[in-house]
Amino acid sequence: MADISPAPTEAGNPVIFARGVHKHYGAIHAVDGVDLDIRAGELFGLIGHNGAGKSTMFKMMLGLIPLTAGEIRIDGASVVGGDFRAVRRKVGYLPENIVLYDNLNGLETLQFFARLKGVSSADNPRLLERVGLAHAAKRRVREYSKGMRQRLGFAQALLGRPRILFLDEPTTGLDPEAIRGFYAILRELRDEGVTMVITSHILAEIQERVDRLSIMAAGKVQATGTVQALRERMNLPLRFELQLAPGAFDTVRATLADLPVSAIEARDGGLALRCGREAKMKVLAALSSLGDLVRDLTVREPSLEDVFFGFSD
């Protein structure tokens, strides 16, 4: 595993620290030697195929299942030590599939979880309002939609004002407006210094929102870094999309003939091409020399999905 992210600027140890973590179920190595360093106040993504080991890592970091080998420390405390009980009070968790009691209403559900966590219920109405469920506080959970259940699960994860949040596929079932509201809350929490780890199958949703991420495959971390750093490491081609003046296609194509570009194709009154990152400025200079023959230009970076498949395949 290679970490290509910048060195931490803050002093001290990472809030979440994992070294050589293994979890074996007989011959199955669900997690196979994972290292992680997650900094205070960071929104960190953990992505991978189903079965890559993400949820297993979450459960070990929460102390819910034992490690086969290795070490995990959360806020300085080992997850297998006696000090971890106090740390857990500062941790919130939203599992991928949260189980709720259908006979309780929204407010009663938060009161139930608050008692389990040993925290005050005074903030419960405010939490329901924060996640957009104030109008359904007295409605039975059996009447909640999947998205409402997910928002209620998020509210329970925020009980006790945790300093560390683990969010496993947290936007499942949410509509676009609710997803936007969810990430607005995460931005507020990050501004407050809360450290968050999030998994998601919807890579386009998180690529501009996480500070750094790790890509997992077959129980291992394949790479860690910012999205841009991972793009540069993979050296995936950039995509240029051009709108051309009528009749300009052949001239533009001839201008690009001696440049390291590939996959030139005509499309919708223009053309599309790919080039390596190192050739970007040469291609832009050549296109700029064509003046009004090029009416518009868009340069597209590789998506997080492109990067993900590059590392995980």
Written description of the protein model:
- The protein has helices at residues 54-61, 84-88, 106-117, 124-130, 146-157, 176-191, 203-206, 227-234, 249-255, 280-288, 304-312, and strands spanning 2-3, 16-25, 28-38, 43-48, 69-74, 77-78, 91-94, 164-168, 195-199, 212-217, 220-225, 238-244, 261-267, 270-275, 294-300.
- With 313 residues, it is an alpha/beta fold.
- The protein folds into two domains: 2-232, 3-Layer(aba) Sandwich (Rossmann fold); 237-302, YebC, transcriptional regulation domain (Alpha-Beta Plaits, 2-Layer Sandwich).
- A hairpin with a 2-residue loop joins strand 13 (261-267) and strand 14 (270-275).
- The protein is globular, with a radius of gyration of 24 Å.
- It starts with a strand and ends with a helix.
